Amino acid sequence: MNNPTKRFNLKFSRSLTGSALSRYFSFSALYTAQGIPEGITFFAIPAWLAMNDKSALDIAAFVGIIGIPWSFKILMAPLMDRFTILSMGRKRPWVIFGQLGLILSFLSIGLVPDPLNNMSGLMLTGFFISFFGAFQDVATDGMAVDVIPIDEQARANGLMWGTKIIGTSVSLIVGTALINNLGFSLAISSLAIAVALIMLVPIYFTERPGEKIMPWTKGEANHESKESQLRSWKQILKSLYRVVRLRSSLIFCVAVFIIGIMYGLVDTILPIFTIQELGWSNTFFSEAFSIINILAGFLGMFIGGYMVDYFGKLKMLTLYLGLIAGIIAIFAFTTSFWNSNIYIYGFILLYYTLYTFLCIAVFASGMNLCWKTVAATQFTLYMALSNMGRASGSAIVGVLKANFSWDYVFYITALMPLIMGIIVQFINFRNHQDKVDSFTVLDHTLVTPHVIED
Fold this sequence. Notes:
single chain, mainly alpha, Growth Hormone, Chain: A, disordered N terminus, disordered C terminus, transport
């Protein structure tokens, strides 16, 4: 017997809840847009600064500053949960606003005079690019939690994270080429065009059927959106506290902060290490890094989500963390091979492939620990803690390099996944979900009499 729902889901629908293909396409495009500011601010600009002989301390300070907005995403999420233009969807209006902010912030960097000798101006505009990148990230994640069914989460995370990596890599290689040929300010400002094109996606697709495309067009709020919309700060904070204080959630908070430190360390170290220590040019770094990451992104898209679904979250988290700790430690130990570009390529390829797989497992684990009532804010809390760790890791690179040789810097970096690998063993997903289900049953019991009475 034919299933009409499955036939419908295999086609594009104007609403995200109506079609899996629409969801995959839209979130892939939005995650590609997230990769653009990251590729430019975390990789292209640091590589350009390193190429122009800026110190490790200056570069680490820049990366630390642009990492700050990503650390405070948790302040943005409750705002989005509390307020919205409900007739346009719960999170979609915020996604469009974040895209618009990204366009303006990319254009504004062209106003910075002499950016090489004006680090404060460069940091300020870089901060705003990161702010709206983080803003769009929060809104997109919240919309994903709302409209992606549970049985699609791992596969969707693989596709989304893979396209983000590809967006980061393509923006890095294109941005670097533009910087070298057009000059810094014009090159970075021109990336607003790519963001503007991607902005058409959230403008075209609605979250649910019947919603407005824009505030002045026809449409109305969907019944499901009205039911799930939180209308009280007290409700948001109380619900968040109830679920985050559970043991597995608290352990996951610590774990994602620690692994965030590793992300920040490696992302900041690589352009400085390859350009100033190994003598690469910023063009050579961006091309090698981008090609490797595009490959890692494709592997993540087609394998990463499947592996988590098949073997389980905890097993894959443990495996990926152990492998990452091992390859970083081996790289630190084999300094005699650092003069071989092939060896460096191999290390970067292994690290970023495993990094992509790890991120997919971390995202899927975070979603699994979320309580649907406050899932967007809770998931953003996990990601904000990871980004706090990332900003911390980026900020301490200059201090580490001033006191240790490169091999010891890598040894210290290898400790982070090792520590997280030990901590996650104390997470019990099934027990946590049972407790979350009991919250839902209790809330339903308490709310139902009030609804009937009304």
